[in-house]
Amino acid sequence: MRFRARRGAPSETGRLEAFSDGVFAVAITLLALDLSRIHADPTATPTVTLFESLSTQWPTLLAFAGAFAFVGVAWTNHHNVFMRVKAVSRSLNGANLVLLAGIVVVPWATSNLADALGMPGVEAGRQAILLYAAVTIAGALTWSLLFHVLASNPDLLDDPAHAHGFATDRAASAIGIATTAGAAAVGWLVAPILGTALLACVPVIFAVASEGFERTDSRPKEVTP
Fold this sequence. Notes:
- The chain is mostly helical.
- It has a domain at 59-214.
- It is 69% helix and 0% strand.
- The protein contains seven helices and no strands.
- Helix 2 runs antiparallel to helix 4 (106-117).
- The chain starts with 13 loop residues before the first helix and ends in a 16-residue tail after the last helix.
């Protein structure tokens, strides 16, 4: 006789991880599709070669590099987090969906930024960099939510002691928010292209600040006689 699992009971992590990997893959693909704007155009007057296109559209590559780093670091950290998770509750599944929602809007914000950087003047770039910063700050907040759920539910973890580490890792999200806000301020006050370059460095800073993902308990384990 088959028994139906209790509604809301914790479930295994396989489906959540597979779905999440698919979302990250789609986000990366959408970012790459935006590179299609960099191409030779022999029908234009005058003719545009590939190198000429690169010389005018290089901000697209810069925006792509920053967004690719953002999504790539997020995927790596997501994998490291769920290596320590043994079961998924409804609250954890909800927090993960919110995190993925922050990921899927990154290509849209990146496309707007790349378009704006190619326009004359700085006003469009200033607005687009604020939009991109808002999206990435929202993404950092979704990590805080995920960490809060894991820190509050040690029974979902392979080792309940990791709950303390996840509570500490919320500070890494604050670092990401602060550095992103600083880069956006430079983009608004100084130059959008400089702010974009700084934003491309933020995921690297976040990755360094996220070393807590890799922490293990260094205390010697007690030997059971």
